[in-house]
Amino acid sequence: MGVEKGTRDSDIEHEEDLDEEPGEVIESAPPLKVGEERELGNSGIKKKLLKRGLGWETPEFNDEVTVHYVGTLLDGTKFDSTRDRDSSVIMKLGHGEVVAGLDHGIITMKKGERALFTLPPELGFGVAGRDAVPTSSFVRYEVELVSWIKVVDVSKDGGIIKKIVEKGDKHERPGDLDEVLVKYQVALADGTIVAKTQEEGIEFYVKDGHLCPALPKATMTMKRGEKVKLVVQPQYAFGQEGKDASDAICPVPPNSTLYIDLELTSFKPVIDVTGDAKVFKKILKEGEGSLVANEGATVTISYTARLEDGTVFERKGIDDGQPLQFITDEEQVIAGLDQAVATMKKGEHAILTVKPEYGFGNIETKRDLAIVPPSSILVYEVEMLDFIKEKTPWEMNNQEKIKAAERKKEEGNLLFKSGKYLRAGKKYDKAASYVGEEEVFGDDEQKLVTAMRVTCWLNKAACSLKLNDFQGAIKLCSKVLDIEFYNIKALYRRAQALIQTTDLVSADMDIKKALEVDPQNREVKLIQKTLKQLQAESNKRDAKLYSNMFADMTKQTSAITKKLKVERAEDDMKNGEAVAMEMENVADSSYPPDNAKAVDSC
């Protein structure tokens, strides 16, 4: 029933250090000493430590604990005892299966701990009392926490309840992309076993699912080596339809709850190297330490390369063959292999799956052992034998930093000339990092490194323009102009980028400033001509827009005026009709009395 199968040396070597009470509410309270009594927060519950427990973990509400207890009144009268029954009890915390106050006390205990709890009536048996417990009585429980099983609501709706029978090792849990190896046995409520893995278990990718929806969901919450019991409600099992018999499972009736014993034997982490699901790395064997090859490292690898159908097209460092050595991020191998190897540790063994975009593309390619057809998915099984990382700036003296910056800048220049602007930009970034503003240089070196930084920023800005990263170019040129206010290249390149972002006013200011320094500069005069054309077109568009706006306004005004005239005319007509009718009414109202008089007189 216990969570821990064994006791670690670290749990028992320094018992005096195991005094903390994670479950106590009192903040900054000193740890309880054996024989000391203290109230737990403002709960009214008092705890007296009788024997220290092991480790630092304590159970939580909903966990299933195994305990021994003896219940007495304050005068020592015993009313309940598991010791007398010679049998510990299993209870679910937070459900008040004995008394509510006891649950609140147990969550402050460690495995193996013994404590005496004094409970007030409202957290004991209350006003009603019970057999052998008078009404409104304080009671005492001497408790030993034997072990507990952690209970987790995996689905947060009670649909998948996980009880941890045996803890796993380490802290890593499998992710959605990872391949897991599990063992399980699935039973119905009546104990009928409907599915069971072979002794060696079964492998599957978490994202692909397996057996029923609950299994991958629960697996993602487990650590390597963890054993659990799952209670799975129908909505996470086979639902209202149930499951017909197959090779993997016996028939499952509709609306069945499943009881699954599950063990996560191991898992192989799978990493999306490029972030676009086109190069995956599955780690078969973890490497040494925490350092990875990274960009610019000289790596030595062995590998077998296959097509999806298993055809081997290349081997390096296998069967006494020479391993492959190359520098990462230098386009010496296909992009997928290059980028994946840069994430590997020394001694790491992995399988890479490379989509065509990061492989040989849609071109047929002849390799050592076979021809790779167009648009082929490639599979590399790679081992990182060794790598030598480039020195970082903090590992160099000032002269080494300056030389390294010069070398990277020249490499960037060569790449720029060959049209490889993205890689060239990275080289300029690297060069600038060696002589960064945070680095400390002597007075005789400062002028040189400042000029180096400015050159790298300007060259990277040129790359940004080629790659249509206009905001990036503006930012880099602005950094240069913060140092050299009238740097013509910076003003010229920033003006180019500003024109592309349609900020013609700011572009005009930069061009005028550049021409103040060099009025005959051909490139600046050409871009000024382009700018004037764009301004003229912009003014023409604006004029047309305003003309249309005024025309629309005139039409609207005319229509409104016409409408007002019509309304006025209608009002005038209505008013005229009203006056005429009123006159008629006046005339009509004067005639009958006269007529009446005439009749009367006759």
UniProtKB/TrEMBL annotation:
Ranges of residues in domain PPIase FKBP-type: 62-149, 177-268, 296-388
Source organism superkingdom: Eukaryota
Skewed-composition ranges (Basic and acidic residues): 1-11
InterPro entries according to UniProt: FKBP4/5/8-like (IPR050754), PPIase_dom_sf (IPR046357), PPIase_FKBP_dom (IPR001179), TPR-like_helical_dom_sf (IPR011990), TPR_rpt (IPR019734)
Xref: SUPFAM superfamilies: FKBP-like, TPR-like
Compositionally biased region (Acidic residues): 12-24
Protein name: peptidylprolyl isomerase
Gene3D superfamilies listed in its UniProt record: 3.10.50.40, Tetratricopeptide repeat domain (1.25.40.10)
Keywords of the record: Isomerase, Repeat, Rotamase, TPR repeat
Chain intervals for the UniProt region annotation (Disordered): 1-38
Organism: Populus deltoides
Single GO term (MF): peptidyl-prolyl cis-trans isomerase activity
Enzyme class, UniProt record, top EC level: isomerase
Family assignment from sequence similarity: Belongs to the FKBP-type PPIase family.
Catalytic activity, reaction form: [protein]-peptidylproline (omega=180) = [protein]-peptidylproline (omega=0)
Pfam families in UniProt: FKBP_C (PF00254)
UniProt EC number: 5.2.1.8
